[in-house]
Amino acid sequence: MQPDPIFVIAAALAVAVILASAATHKLRAPARFANQLEAYQLLPQALVSPIARLLPLLEAGLAFALLVPAARHFAALGAAALLASYALAIGINLWRGRRDIDCGCAGPQQEQPIRPLLLARNTVLVSLALVASLAPLSRNLGLFDAFVVIAASAVALLIYAAADGLMANSPRLLKLIGR
Amino acid sequence: MDALIVSNILLWGLLIALAFAVMGLVRQIGVLHGRLAPAGALMVDKGVAVNEPAPQVTAADRSGRPVNFGYAGEKAQLLFFLSPTCPICKSLLPAIKSIAKEQAHRLDVIYVSDGDMDAQKALITEHKLDDATYVVGPEVGMTYQIGKLPYAALIDNAGVLRAKGLVNSREHLDSLFETEHLGSATLQQYLHNSQHAHGAHNH
């Protein structure tokens, strides 16, 4: 069964905005992102700095391609793979028992240690990207459909930002109540 | 059909507004967490005693006008000791400015700093302190024996030092006014005294 285009386009728009904002954070503070990448201890030292420079460009490219209908399918699969590899990087470090490194998931002042909860967050993002990769039912889209697409992705992004903020706050709350 | 579309648009609009409200709440919680940073350690007190006349000193503010410290006057004085190189001082500036605005009728807020003039100018521009009384120089800090920043001292309109202390948060600042109101040097001393009074009453 093919999904309605509204689901696919709204998911693609939401993932595109999330990737674009992630890319701007990384491009604005390249040194900080390189440090975060190094802290994950997954790459050989020589590769850290070129990959730290490449990743934000890849994110921005995928974000742009998601908005182009012809490229949407492959860009969405690429975004899903990228987000899944981030989850894998977090998972490997959790498995190593290194819970004290900064996630680097969100922008500045949103530092948070890596936790299993972040794997759930990335799972949600990967499934959103997979929805965007589906081939939609073909039907004519009117003005009202465009409105629903924009409204739905705006609500999804706001709730994503709120959930991100809650996740960044929760370690601070635990510290405050002394656990 | 039209009614359904109208209701749908209305619901989307309200849902977006609700999502904004939720995000705003989360952000505010984040700010509160930032403000609830751990309090500064207690330090060995030195310098001028509270509830004694404040030492009198005159210094020029950054435009060269003389400012009197510790003299009796129309208004009480709140001295805020800061430095452009101290991040906690900067995070307290909004709180100081709001106190200055709220209590403008009875309180003069004076910013006292020391060090590089360019850094002071950058701080003044960044935090819009152009109209504030801003003294740059070591005299006042040395007279009041300020060793740690950010530090605040409250002098009443008779020239008596009413409260002072290291201030790391809005709560610390408010506690200065609370101790002034209670007439004790510190909140700890007030609690101690009231316990004594209570004990004496029981006997």
Summarize the structure.
The complex is a heterodimer of chains A (179) and B (203). Chain A is an all-alpha fold.
| Largest interface in this structure | A-B, 19 and 18 residues
**Uncertain segments of chain B of ≥5 residues (pLDDT<50)?**
40-44, 197-203
Which value, in Å, is the CA radius of gyration of chain B? 23 Å
Sheet-strand content of chain B, in percent, reads 15-25%
Percent range for helical residues of chain A? over 70%
Mean pLDDT of chain B: 77
Compute the number of strand runs of chain A: 0
Label the structural class of chain A. mainly alpha
In DSSP terms (H or I, runs of 4 or more residues), the helix count of chain A works out at 6
Backbone CA Rg of chain A: 17 Å
Number of strands of chain B: 7
- SSE string of chain A, helix = H, strand = E? HHHHHH
Query: Under the CATH scheme, which architecture of the domain at 57-192 in chain B would be assigned?
Result: 3-Layer(aba) Sandwich
At the fourth level of CATH, the homologous superfamily of the domain at 57-192 in chain B is: Glutaredoxin
What is the helix tally of chain B? 6
Structural write-up:
The complex is a heterodimer of chains A (179) and B (203). The N and C termini of chain A lie far apart (48 Å). Chain A has one domain (5-176). Chain A is globular. The longest helix of chain A is centred in the last third of the chain and has 34 residues, at 143-176. By secondary structure, chain A is mostly helical. Chain A has helices at 5-28, 30-39, 45-66, 72-95, 116-133, 143-176. Chain B has six helices and seven strands. In chain B, 46% of the residues lie in helices and 18% in strands. By secondary structure, chain B is of the alpha/beta class. In chain B, the strands form two sheets. In chain B, strands 5-4-3-6-7 form a five-stranded mixed β-sheet, covered by helices on one side. Chain B has a two-stranded antiparallel sheet with strand order 1-2. The longest helix of chain B has 34 residues, at 2-35.
